[in-house]
Design a protein that fits this description.
By secondary structure, this protein is an alpha+beta fold. The protein contains three helices and five strands, in the order ααβββββα. The strands form two sheets. It has a three-stranded antiparallel sheet. The chain has a two-stranded antiparallel ribbon with strand order 3-4. Helix 1 crosses helix 2.
Amino acid sequence: MTLTKARIIEALERGRMPKKRAARAVEDLLEVIKRTLVSGEDVLISGFGKFCVKEKGERKGRNPATGEDMLLAPRRVVTFKCSRKLREKVNGR
């Protein structure tokens, strides 16, 4: 099952945080992360991982419908690299 924003709020609520306060905390945290990534900065959460903004250059591509060659514009993408601690925990170590 996928962990959703609603399930995160429910988990905080079970930890005795009022639902409205939990929802606001989750929304605020996600907004800070989004703003930081949009500005081009990385987000490091110790013990969890690092979200990085990577620059992708212009490259050749192909339209799958027509097979026509085309140039794809440069763009920025977000990548995630998990921490060693998280990797070990996921792998049962």
